[in-house]
Amino acid sequence: MTRQTEGRGRLYDTVLDTVGNTPAIRINRLAPDHVTVYVKAEAFNPGGSVKDRLALNIIEAAEASGALKPGQTVVEATSGNTGIGLAMVCAAKGYPLVITMVETFSVERRRLMRFLGAKVVLTPKEQKGTGMYQKAKELAEKNGWFFARQFETEANADIHEHTTGREIMADFDGQRLDYFVSGFGTGGTVTGVSRVLRRERPETKIILSEPDNAAMVQSGVAQERTEDGEPAASHPAFNPHPIQGWTPDFIPLVLQEALDKGGYDDLLLVGGPESIAASRDLALKEGIFTGISGGATFATALKVAEKAPKGAVILAMLPDTGERYLSTPLFDGIEAEMSEEEIALMRSTPGYQMGG
Ligand code: PMP
């Protein structure tokens, strides 16, 4: 029978109302037989990532509190997805937006933000995540702009408690859920979801993941902070890693709540190359297109699966789409030109051949 769709049964007043309600999708070929693995595909958000949720809530919470005035400029430091989400929200609501970003993050991200009307100010790679953060702060102070402060704001974990966590509760209602797997950028996802799971599904184990060469949480070394909870210095266990959007060079205040309140059960490390391989596998074997951090989370979920008891159900977060990594190692070896095999296919019939 031909598949049929029914529409959403409603009309939307703004693109912003389409944020959230992302699907949890079963993995059919890559998971071992004794477990069931689902992925929550945040690429279904209108801006293509999990950060649409936070961007929307930062702006709406600030509108509600009066911290953001009509027409006031918004400024934020971001590795990309928050900037894209904020650019979407600011465009839809009519706020000017300035983003500060380390020069090493993918070029697609800058161009996407500029396409959505944001100004993007680059900061030197030597000054890492703290450099882009301090630049945003300087600009906010000098110009009286609204600083979104994704790494400290309560609006971050709150939105994951009220949306991501609720969606997981609804979708797994009456079903087993043994493990929830996530990495962290700000920690908003894991902190917000863990509030819900601890309260309502205490049997679900929360697995936190971080890059094997930037194992700040595992190091046990506390983050130095200012009185406002901002990082006062780069964390000593940090090293540059290829999992964009994960693990800045400090432990964010938003994540600190999950660390302090027992918001996770186990911490697993994952490497850059295995993360990239896992993202490619998801595309090739499941048709699921996600970025490097999605690969990292999925690779972690497979480590959990290896040791999980028979029948266990695992949910892994896939934070964004792979499309914003065309210029990164995720696409290394994916060429624009025809391969020998493709040329042989072209020559296998007489017509329509490229010259040369
Ligand atoms: N992956 C990617 C690609 C991201 O952009 C982010 C957010 N920076 C994350 C994962 C982590 O999400 P969170 O900030 O909620 O911890």
Question: Can you characterise this structure?
Answer:
By secondary structure, the chain is an alpha/beta fold. The protein folds into 2 domains: 202 residues, 3-Layer(aba) Sandwich (Rossmann fold); 97 residues, 3-Layer(aba) Sandwich (Rossmann fold). 38% of the residues lie in helices and 13% in strands. It contains 11 helices and 10 strands. It has a 6-stranded mixed beta sheet with strand order 1-2-10-7-8-9, with helices on both faces. The site of 4'-deoxy-4'-aminopyridoxal-5'-phosphate (PMP) has 19 residues, from helix 6. 4'-deoxy-4'-aminopyridoxal-5'-phosphate binds next to helix 6.
- The CATH architecture of the largest domain is 3-Layer(aba) Sandwich
Poorly predicted segments = none
For the record, the CATH class of the largest domain is: Alpha Beta
Spatial order of the strands forming the largest sheet: 1-2-10-7-8-9
* Number of discrete domains: 2
In angstroms, what is the radius of gyration? 21 Å
User: How many strands, which pairing sense, and closed or not: the largest β-sheet?
Assistant: 6 strands, mixed
Please report the total strand number as a whole number: 10
Query: CATH topology of the largest domain, anyone?
Result: Rossmann fold
Q: How much is the average pLDDT?
A: 96
